[in-house]
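Colleagues,

Please find the record for the two-part complex below.
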Amino acid sequence: DIQMTQSPSTLSASVGDRVTITCRASRSISNWLAWYQQKPGKAPILLIYKASRLQSGVPSRFSGSGSGTEFTLTISSLQPDDFATYYCQQYNSFPYSFGQGTRLEIK
Amino acid sequence: EVQLVESGGGLVQPEGSLRLSCAASGFTFSNSAISWVRQAPGMGLEWVSTITGSGGSTYYADSVKGRFTISRDNSKNTLYLQMNRLRAEDTAIYFCATGNSAYGSYHDFWGQGTLVTVSS
C-alpha cells in the first residue's frame, strides 16, 4: 500500500503570503495525485488533479507540481477564503490513500 | 448540475449493521466509478471503497474489508454501502464521491455526507 505524508501539519500565514504544502508518496505514483480543500463542516473540494491540472472554477492562485514521490501545492497570494485544511490523495493504485492533512491558519 | 445525496446514517450499536445510500443526478451515472470516503470526528479523510461504473470491480480499505460491501444500481442512479459488524472506530461522516472515469480516479464531486455513530 502507498502511504502519503504531508508537511507541515499546520501552517500559519497571513493574507497575501505565498505558501507551499508538500506531499510525499512512499513509492512512485507518477503524477496520479490530487489536492483537496476542506472547510469545517463541509465536503472536500477538488483543487488540482494529475499533480498540476487546475480543476475548473478553481482560482489561478492555486498551483500544483511534482511527479514520482514528491509533490507541492502552492497558493501564490493567500486570500481570506483560503484558510482551510488541505489534503493530497494518490489515485495511482488501490487502496487509494490521503495525506493526513495540512491545516492552514491565520497568523 | 451534479448532485450526490447520502442517506442512511444514524446511531447503531457495536456489531450492528447499517446501509448507506447515495442518490446521484446530473451526470451519466454508469460512466463513473464512485467511492465512499469517511472522516472520523476531528480527523482526516480516509478512503473506504470504490466501485467501477459497471459494478464489475470493487475495492476496499483493509480496515473495512470483509465487513463492508459496496454496490450500485445503475437503473436507479444509486450507490450503496452495506456496513456489518460495526465498530466504534467506524464512527465517522461518510461521503460519496464521483470518480472522473469508469474505473476510478480523483474525486471531482462530493456529497454532503451522512453521519454514522457506533456506540452502545
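The radius of gyration of chain A is 13 Å.

Comments are welcome before we finalize the supplementary table.
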